[in-house]
Design a protein that fits this description.
The structure is a single chain. By secondary structure, the protein is mostly helical. Helices cover 79% and strands 0% of the residues. The chain contains three helices and no strands. Helix 1 packs antiparallel against helix 2 and helix 1 packs parallel to helix 3. The chain is elongated. The termini are far apart.
């Protein structure tokens, strides 16, 4: 029974770590692709708010990846071998990479959102 709970917990942890690593880049790519695709519609109808809605959704998605990676960080371990040298546990590295990746893509999403408030996509 304990092993089954450990396996379920491990699967949930792996999913959380992968969310922390891949959700922010996916959010940025989706923001970029969907915004690019709806610019003709926004220009023809004047509904520029959809560009901002998509960016806000992408930003929330990227922030959720950062939060998940930060919450998983205390649960990771950086084990030491018998000589005291640090062994690289993959969860330790994955949590930190998820934090760095999410933070970077949050900056990128915000940086690409600023021109949308200043410039018209129709120009």
């Amino acid at each position: 029974m304990a092993r089954e709970a450990l396996r379920e917990d491990s699967a949930a942890r792996v999913a959380a770590l992968m969310w922390g690593v891949f959700a922010a880049p996916f959010a940025w790519a989706a923001d970029e692709g969907i915004s690019y695709a709806i610019v003709p519609h926004a220009c023809s109808t004047g509904a520029f708010f959809w560009l901002h809605v998509i960016t806000a959704f992408a930003l929330v998605l990227a922030i959720s990846a950062l939060v998940v990676a930060l919450l998983e960080l205390p649960r990771t371990s950086h084990p030491r071998d018998e000589n005291g040298a640090a062994n690289g546990d993959w969860t330790w590295w994955t949590a930190r990479f998820g934090i760095a990746s999410s933070a970077w893509f949050i900056v990128v999403i915000v940086a690409q959102a600023v021109p949308r408030f200043i410039l018209s996509p129709c120009d």
